[in-house]
Amino acid sequence: MAPPASSRRSRRPAPELLFGDLWPYDPAPETADPRIRAEYDLFIGGRFVPAADGTRFTSINPATERPLTELARGGPADVDAACRAAASAFPRWSRLPGAERGKYLFRLARLLQDRAREFAVAETMDNGKPIRETRDFDVPSAAAHFFYHAGWADKLAYLAPGRTVAPLGVVGQVIPWNFPLLMLAWKIAPALAAGNCVVLKPASNTPLTAVKLAELLQEAELPPGVVNIVTGPGATGAHLLAHPLVSKVAFTGSTEVGKVILRSVAGAGKRLTMELGGKAANIVFADAPLDQAVEGIVNGIFFNQGQVCCAGSRLLVQESVAERVVAQLRRRLRVLRVGDPLDKNTDLGAIVSREQRDVIRGYLRAGVAEGAELWQAPFRAPARGFYVPPAVFTGVTQSHRIAREEIFGPVLSVLTFRTVEEAVEKANNTPYGLSAGVWTDKGSLILRLATELRAGVVWANTFNKFDPASPFGGYKESGFGREGGRHGLLDYCAVA
Amino acid sequence: MPRLPVTKTPKPYVGGAFIRSESGRTRPLADATGTFFAHVPLCTRKDLRNAVEAAAKAGPGWARRTAYNRGQILYRLGEMLEARRTEFAAALTRFGARRAAALREVDAATDRLVHYAGWADKYEQLLGGVNPVSGPYFNFTVSEPMGVIGVLAPAEPPLLGLLSLVAPVIVSGNTVVALASEPRPYPAILLGELLATSDLPAGVVNVLTGLRADLVPTFATHAHLRGLSAVADAAERRVLDLGAAESVKRVRYTPDAPLAAWLREAAQGLEPIRAFIEPKTTWHPIGA
Hints:
By secondary structure, chain A is of the alpha/beta class. Chain A contains 16 helices and 20 strands. By secondary structure, chain B is of the alpha/beta class. Chain B is about 45% helix and about 20% strand.
């Protein structure tokens, strides 16, 4: 019997519309004023103060390589002052009724919403990520984190029924450059809701929205010392996390640096939350809705230029559909727009720094040298700035460095599998275990993989979704502790 | 003529079998009166690695058991300990515990097993859940076991201390390699014999005897141990933390404390279980 006409039609490849350069997009720059000052100081004890040694460093816009602002270069003396400010604020802050603490956090959420556009532009200029992402994801999610945790502040007793829950004291927090404001919110909001005080060091590449947030802390009339922000180099962060007044360490960054931090606080009895690297597998089965899967693959690895710890950097695709998926993927990537991050039509912006761009290029060379086949979307590089067009490696094996190491860039490695068992084994064959993706139409297969994949977050028929109520964090060398939800909040509490 | 009693060779319990140390090393153990009791094996790094292998092999099967089944197996252990109450108490008094304290310790150990048996099919409803995300997604968090966990038992109390650390770890589907009390290893040896005749699958709990100085560094660095639950002094904690950093291992310390502290209700509960589970969050779109 002949298959029905509709099915015959669906076997024929869809005709491709080739626009070429016929109809270019007009520039659509976001023009809101980011209100960036020429100089920023440290925020310690509720006041802006220069670094003890008076030094400064420059933050540049990676899309233009032009300087954005000058920031105080905090050092050990500044960390010490910030920790002491936090410690002296702690008794009052932790004894404040939870409902009152919560109201400060509600205020912060609202203030951030009020100035959302301004923060989005500032974040894009400091980090290089597209305005579409900062406007629609980073800033609203950061506000949502404050709002979510605000509501917890007077409900801590419900976290651990039958036990008492208490804050830990001064929390030292060091955050990365990939989601500067959002990571700040992930860190500060639960710490404050639980009654802790905070010293936070933003990444040296992307300190701008943290110091801008300090302005909101003042507008919210947060008691002095409850949150202190010390900008500076990595060494300042190391100093903060090892500081004797810090009773809880919360770090997001690479596994390599995470291990250095773990060694530096060995034996100190500090509580730890480590959010480290990943090498997520995105598994596509033959029965998956392939158009949606391709969108998910693109979102999984090219969101934020692939500079995401949970990026779906290993595509595991079932052999029977591999060619089709790769072809569809290339067609989709050809029309992604790489360029000016402030343009509202931009899909991929700039890489955060020259160093990171060079790291990514190094992996591209390594992949080719090890025998994988590199394909990159056609791309006209802007005159200045750090850009890498979407890259897809095929013919990748599990031993290739591009399939083992976290690249933190828009580089996808495609591997194939035949059976479910093989997919699971390949997905789990990594020291990391942060996230994984599964694409299939079969519910029972999703639940099986959700059980067998060793990863803290499993996205089924979706990828790179985040929410303040959803615990995020890894297995194995992707770190420990969770952020978000009840789980994340408990990691900022002592349960007795 | 009085009958000559048959003495027992104490053997660690690994992979469901009673082993001697591969090194052949032992140390003489005297009882509280100073009388020679037996030669106790001094397990080595190699023994520890073998035990981790046994525990890793037992892991997937144990984790796949239903929570109800794990609960019944833990409860059965409690039943058996109750039945051998006087034998265990005698093992404690022989090495210095007063009779009343020994009975209290054994009874508390039995009650602790029963306590955790009851947790097996309950912790998930308290630790996991459905998360109300702001979008059309069904989002839920479940608790999964971490894998093989190392347990460093305190010197005192030798039975209750060990069981208080082991029970909350295995109840969620982890498997354990434990190092018994260094000065009083015999109750742990006896516990191994109890485990061997229980319904606990071979390899789920492995009990080594030996010197902490020999074994703590390997507990710290063994990459297949995903977590450590330990009573340890400051110097050991440093060694454990440094080693754990290499494979980002989860570490939980319980303070060294006298029997009275281990008897308290606060010494058990959900927190020791929570320390050795991994929350896993799954997202799925809601729609066609």
